[in-house]
Design a protein that fits this description.
Layout lengths: L6 H12 L1 H16 L5 H7 L1 H4 L1 H18 L4 H14 L6 H22 L6 H17 L9 H15 L4 H18 L5 H9 L4 H7 L8 H18 L30
Length: about 270
């Protein structure tokens, strides 16, 4: 397949067949990177969505993006999800550079995660397909000045973090709310203090400092990341997935009885 012409199909196969677990968790951690950009977090705090309705805000984002990926951004449901997302974003004056940075995390965080933890790294064709997929989604969102190549967008991502990644109290509020959401999926509240350092061990120190989360104890990062890397040989030995893992079809915490695309997002 061609990474330009067939980018939707390649992105679907990579995300829903080969790396569903890895992609999902890479994008969860990508949220922390957005929260490290201090110039953009005051608006996120002001809306209250991430602090007061964290689970719903997370689920709405996952479902909207999954509708586009799983059905195609040019399908009926994909276009409906895109309209809903654009309507939500249109309520706020969000600078174009912040859109660009968020878009870049959707491309590069799964790639970086796979290089470190997945059962194989992404192929060059898969990386290019991810770039072209998200570039087209960005174009449909009316994001301007999307870098014209994979390499240029990666350079933008790194340069933007070098310039804008710094601590603010708003960063910390958003990161703590999202971290506690993730911990709540796996642990009772009484065990969150034990689980938090494990989660922190998957995040680099520069990002932890930017969002005001404590660095993990010495040695814990190596243990946690080593355990994630140990999955690789086990997964390579297992039979390949024969059906896609579709997030739109799984039971959802916010919408246990199903959802309508037009109901996703803030009212």
């Amino acid at each position: 397949m061609d990474p330009v012409k067939d980018h939707q199909e390649i992105a679907f196969l990579s995300t829903c067949y080969d790396f569903p677990w890895d992609t999902q968790h890479a994008l969860e951690l990508a949220l922390f990177r957005v929260f490290g950009i201090a110039k953009g977090t005051p608006l996120l705090v002001q809306t209250g969505e991430f602090l007061q309705r964290t689970q719903k805000r997370y689920d709405d984002t996952v479902l909207i993006l999954s509708e586009m990926l799983e059905n195609g951004y040019d399908s009926e449901r994909g276009r409906a999800a895109l309209r809903r997302m654009n309507r939500q974003h249109g309520r706020y004056a969000i600078p174009n550079d912040e859109y660009l940075y968020t878009l870049s995390t959707f491309i590069f965080e799964p790639i970086r995660w796979n290089e470190r933890f997945a059962w194989r790294a992404l192929l060059d064709k898969e990386k290019l397909a991810a770039y072209h997929y998200w570039k087209q989604v960005g174009t449909l969102m009316n994001i301007k000045d999307i870098p014209p190549s994979y390499e240029a967008f990666e350079r933008f991502n790194l340069d933007y973090e070098a310039e804008h990644l710094r601590f603010s109290e708003d960063n910390r509020k958003l990161a703590v709310a999202t971290r506690d959401l993730v911990l709540g999926w796996a642990l009772p509240r009484a065990l969150w203090p034990l689980g938090a350092p494990v989660l922190h061990a998957m995040i680099d120190d520069r990002m932890l400092d930017a969002v005001g989360l404590p660095r993990p104890p010495p040695g814990l990062r190596g243990l946690v990341q080593g355990a994630l890397r140990a999955r690789g040989p086990l997964l390579r030995a297992m039979p390949r997935r024969r059906s896609p893992r579709l997030l739109t079809q799984l039971r959802n915490r916010t919408y246990p009885d199903g959802y309508r695309i037009e109901d996703l997002g803030a009212r």
